[in-house]
Write the structure tokens for this entry.
Amino acid sequence: MANHGELEHAGDRWRLRFARRLAHPPEKVWRALTEPEHLRAWFPTTIEGDRVSGATLRFAHPDDQGPAFTGRLITYRPPSLMELEWGGDTLRFELSPDGDGTVLTLLDVFDEQGKAARDAAGWHVCLDLLGRHLDGAPAPHDRLDGWTRVNSEYIDRFGPPAATIGPPESMSRS
């Protein structure tokens, strides 16, 4: 299973698809996807609000690196499916048992093709951090370490039209 995401058409929108095999049972991966103390290790924002389908959510960046925003929990079915509105994107996290591990599929549906490489690099790094966290490995000193390299790989994979919207200032450092 490749670590890189794929870019697909999703009707009149775009979709990034990542599938990662994690060497942990679905229940452990689910906790890492949904519990604040685990989210801090890998997700780019907090997720504040009730964990129930239809609930309004608030997302805040650590250290106020960007403005907080609201969204909605579309679907919440522990321990296999969480779908939410995250800014203008729809994020879907699906967990499937795979032997003694789990396959995590992340789908990110969005409008602007031009942000595909940027966002793919971001989710790639986030999923790497999730894997490290689940494995009990220490996080790198700089959570964005490697983003610039991975972003270049996604520009090559997806082409220039997928890279017309650049990174926020906080993501552009190597």
Summary: Helices lie at 26-34, 36-39, 116-135, 147-158.
